Amino acid sequence: MFSKACEYGIRAAVYIALQSLDGRRVSVNEIAEEIDSPLAFTAKILQQLSKSKVIHSVKGPTGGFEIERTDMDHVKLSKIVHAIDGDEIFVGCGLGLKECNAQKPCPLHDKFVDIRNNLKNMLEQTSLYELATGLEVGLTYLRR
């Protein structure tokens, strides 16, 4: 459903949020290792997340990536998905057709609209803080 970059982006943002709750900045190397992602790919994803103001990048010897606690409530998963994959998941055809809409629907159109709307609602209502605190108490897992 999500691109591999988007999956890694969500995992990276959640990991950064979790570490930020402990007052730590994390390096791209640590993030890549913890989310089991190639280093160069992780760096590119983190650049996109930083540019979209999902995470903060701090330069220098004590630098790294972090997310302010106050931002964690406001950063929803939909913002991460949009930063990396754009809005295609919210508007695209379930079969990937270019000419699919209510006037010219594909065979899955009506069923997929409901699924897409439910997914959009879930992504818009789920915050980084919610996911990070779920990890903190052991309710969810970051690695496969």
Question: Could you characterize the architecture of this molecule?
Answer:
There is one protein chain. The chain has 144 residues and is mainly alpha-helical. The chain has a single domain, classed as Orthogonal Bundle (Arc Repressor Mutant, subunit A), CATH 1.10.10.10. The protein is built from eight helices and two strands. It has helices spanning 4-21, 28-35, 39-51, 69-72, 77-85, 88-91, 109-125, 128-136; strands spanning 56-58, 64-66. The protein has a two-stranded antiparallel ribbon. A hairpin with a 5-residue loop joins β1 and β2. α1 packs across α3 (39-51) and α1 (4-21) packs across α8 (128-136). The longest helix is centred in the first third of the chain and has 18 residues, at 4-21. The two termini are 17 Å apart. The mean pLDDT is 90.
Keywords:
144 residues, two-stranded antiparallel sheet, mainly alpha, Arc Repressor Mutant, subunit A
The CATH topology turns out to be Arc Repressor Mutant, subunit A
Major β-sheet profile: 2 strands, antiparallel
Distance between the termini: 17 Å
Tell me the name of the CATH homologous superfamily: Winged helix-like DNA-binding domain superfamily/Winged helix DNA-binding domain
Instruction: Count every helix, treating DSSP H or I runs of 4 or more residues as helices.
Output: 8
Gross CATH architecture: Orthogonal Bundle
- What order do the helices and strands follow? HHHEEHHHHH
In total, the number of domains comes to 1
pLDDT average, as an integer? 90
Low-confidence stretches: none
